Amino acid sequence: MTQLWSTVADWLARRHALAGRSVGFVPTMGVLHRGHASLVERCRRENEITVVSIFVNPSQFNDPGDLERYPRTLESDLALLDRLGVDEVIVPTAPELYPNGYRFRVEPDAGSQVMEGAYRPGFLQGMLTVVLKLLGVVRAERAYFGEKDYQQLKAVTEMVEEFFIPTKIVPCPTVREESGLAASSRNVLLSPDGREKAAWLYRALTTAQGPAEAWAILDAQGFKTEYVEERWGRRFAAAYLEGVRLIDNVPAGEIRRP
Ligand code: PAF
Asked: Which of 11, 98, 85 is nearest to 50 (CA)?
């Protein structure tokens, strides 16, 4: 039976009682999907205790409208985590995690000011800050992050190294629908038509000769593209469809150049 914790103090007392057992952690913002389920399953295989957090972190949203629109499905999320055999779920309020407001912040390095770092001012800073707080609260041996948010994964991995945080960051492959569409909490905001069309993001990334061609494919399908870029041995894109911001990336090896 999953146990639910909403205050840091109660969770820390529980954490103390778990001393000596290996603890794995999956941080989330809820609206759980197959991607999260795969992180949880791996976490359960590799640790005695699996902890999941659900917290829609205000400090990583640069657009208040985006924060407001962000879907929230706590009841079905908790039911899924129970079915998946998660031991502990932390659902803190903002004042629990930010008792003194947004006072101290993690400043990402200059190399991060591209793609998500450039198009979503404050996102990396807010995301790194909450991840640092959560890692401090959960005190896990391992924490699991999906490669769909590759820039997030990379920044978190580097922060953990720089600050000597004793949690190993475990990268996990992107989970896709049969169409190729990457599992994402934002997919529920798309119409059934939009969801079909959204698979073009993956198709464009994997089939285009280069970023310009990927951009043209997305244009033709009605996306409003923010960027298509190649770096770190991968190809990345961010684009709006039906007003929903979607991101995806693939390793160079997955690109089927004709
Ligand atoms: O990927 C997410 O859901 C969030 O950015 C995270 C890592 C839970 C931090 O709020």
From this structure: 85
Summarised one tens digit per residue, pLDDT across range 108-137 is 999 999 999 999 999 999 999 999 999 999
Q: Considering the candidates 15, 33, 36, 235, report the single residue annotated as catalytic.
A: 36
48 backbone dihedrals φ, ψ, rounded to 5°: -75, -35
Q: Is the pTM of this model over 0.85?
A: yes
Minimal CA–CA distance to 87: which of 141, 23, 130, 37?
23
Whether residue 36 lies in the annotated active site: yes
Whether domain 3-172 has CATH 3.10.310.70: no
Query: Does residue 29 have its Cβ closer than 6 Å to ligand 1?
Result: yes
Ligand 1: nearest atom to the Cα of 149: 1
Give the CATH architecture of domain 185-248. Answer: 2-Layer Sandwich (3.30)
CA of 27 to the centre of ligand 1 (A): 6
